[in-house]
């Protein structure tokens, strides 16, 4: 389970790390390990690769601490660096056959599965299943934008930098994704109403 630290704590830890405090960087690594692992696994690479990339991000940060600048968002900085490492690894390993990001794993984290088992109403489990199906059907860029915005709570400008696109593109991805989900959801609901 990740540590509970505030954004202000993160900035203080980042500053301490830049001044040579290895424990501060270790605390950040421990805090973000599970979050980065979940994100990395969505790129269709092996868990060992994800873990290597996480280690590489923090090792690089430590080795370059004297050259690393301040940041307004540690999470944004880590996600951007980590995504770059994952894509670099994937491209290097599959130079001649690029992996389609449509292979993203859109299963919900353990806590959602646990809640589904605790809640006795079958309708909740059916709703979760329907939502997963609809997320899986989205184009790859829209899926990634939705994940970063609504699961990781990143801002549009941060997502734009992480994905290497402009802010308008991210807004378009999100708008189209939500429109598709809403449209499919309404079609499903209409079909159910006709059935009943």
Automatic annotation (TrEMBL):
Signal peptide: none annotated. Residues 28-95 form the RNA polymerase sigma-70 region domain. Residues 130-180 form the RNA polymerase sigma factor 70 region 4 type domain. Belongs to the sigma-70 factor family. ECF subfamily. The keyword Transcription regulation applies. This is Sigma-70 family RNA polymerase sigma factor. Pfam families: Sigma70_r2, Sigma70_r4_2. PANTHER family: RNA POLYMERASE ECF-TYPE SIGMA FACTO (PTHR43133), RNA POLYMERASE SIGMA-70 FACTOR ECF SUBFAMILY (PTHR43133:SF46). It comes from Ravibacter arvi. CDD domains: Sigma70_r4. Keywords: Sigma factor, Transcription, Transcription regulation. InterPro entries: RNA_pol_sigma-70-like (IPR039425), RNA_pol_sigma-70_dom (IPR014284), RNA_pol_sigma70_r2 (IPR007627), RNA_pol_sigma70_r4_t2 (IPR013249), RNA_pol_sigma_r2 (IPR013325), RNA_pol_sigma_r3/r4-like (IPR013324), WH-like_DNA-bd_sf (IPR036388).
């Amino acid at each position: 389970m990740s540590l509970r630290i505030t954004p202000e704590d993160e900035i203080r830890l980042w500053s301490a790390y830049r001044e040579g405090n290895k424990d501060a960087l270790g605390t950040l690594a421990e805090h973000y390990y599970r979050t980065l692992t979940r994100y990395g696994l969505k790129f269709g690479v092996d868990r060992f690769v994800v873990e290597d990339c996480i280690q590489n991000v923090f090792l690089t940060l430590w080795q370059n601490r004297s050259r690393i600048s301040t940041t307004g968002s540690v999470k944004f900085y880590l996600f951007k660096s980590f995504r770059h490492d994952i894509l670099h690894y994937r491209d290097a390993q599959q130079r001649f056959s690029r992996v389609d990001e449509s292979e993203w794993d859109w299963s919900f984290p353990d806590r959602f599965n646990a809640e589904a088992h605790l809640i006795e109403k079958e309708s909740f489990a059916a709703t979760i299943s329907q939502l997963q199906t609809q997320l899986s059907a989205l184009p790859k860029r829209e899926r990634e934008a939705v994940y970063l915005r609504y699961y990781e709570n990143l801002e549009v400008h941060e997502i734009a930098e992480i994905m290497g696109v402009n802010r308008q593109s991210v807004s378009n991805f999100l708008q189209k994704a939500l429109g598709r989900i809403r449209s499919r959801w309404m079609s499903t609901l209409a079909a159910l109403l006709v059935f009943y």
